[in-house]
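Researcher: We are triaging several targets before committing to wet-lab work. For this one, the compound of interest is adenosine-5'-triphosphate. I'm pasting the protein sequence and the ligand SMILES. What I need is the predicted three-dimensional arrangement of the protein with the ligand bound, expressed as structure tokens, so it can go straight into our comparison scripts without reformatting.
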Amino acid sequence: MSEPSAAVAAESLTKRYGPTTAVDELDLSIERGDIYGFLGPNGAGKTTTMRIFTGLIEPTGGEARVAGVPCTDRRALVEDIGLMPETPPLYDQLTGREQLQFAADLRNVPWETVADTALSLCASLDLRADLDRRIDGYSKGMGQKLSFVQAVQHDPTVVFLDEPTSGLDPRAAKTLRELITDLADGDTTVFLSTHILPVVEEIADVVGVLHGGQLVAEGSPAELTAAAARDEGDGADLEDAFLALTTDDGTAWA
Ligand SMILES: Nc1ncnc2c1ncn2[C@@H]1O[C@H](COP(=O)(O)OP(=O)(O)OP(=O)(O)O)[C@@H](O)[C@H]1O
């Protein structure tokens, strides 16, 4: 791969489902400690890309690596990554605490080594008092919070977050944004896929816009906004940039 030091890297990454090309010769390189906002319209290929990076599916072509580890080697990858998918992967019959212990077990990490981090994150998210309740009694937002904690409690090199703030109340969403920023300050790379553009505008270091399985633009939120302002005039924001980049007339600023 061209940049071996990158935390997340893809080269000519391709995924086809029958006649549908979900990810199309994607090249990507994300530096360690960056928050990378991954944007794109419905069906652009974001989830497919994240599923390849986290070893859940194999690409049709090209290569993907996280922390230098080929993403097809899921066993080697598991300690380096955390994943918070859009639908929380939780077991209803467990308590919150048991779920977090189970997640640590899956990574062969002793619970004792992650418990302080996990409990402190739960306290920040106002979830600590609910940890001994069964998950089937949790609200949607409580499930989202627990899913976040289990994705990051083992201090992964890269964490993949799919719509992490959806379903959270404004206070919890603000706390989560702060926790994400703290993770990056601690040198964790954050791959953040969301349709909530103000979140990306606020916390992302770099934004990549995917359209039709291809990266059509990449830059800081300010750079993408400035590019939109050249077309739309002053007052343009990331939403204007997104709308201009994801029309089907082929506009691309990459
Ligand atoms: N298992 C699958 N089988 C067939 N086609 C699939 C499968 N998964 C995804 N696709 C197709 O691949 C393309 C990309 O889908 P993907 O879920 O990656 O998009 P997305 O950017 O995450 O969209 P959204 O914002 O709606 O979640 C779509 O055309 C979708 O229909």
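Researcher: Any quick observations?
Model: Residues 17, 20, 22, 40, 42-48 surround adenosine-5'-triphosphate (CB under 6 Å).
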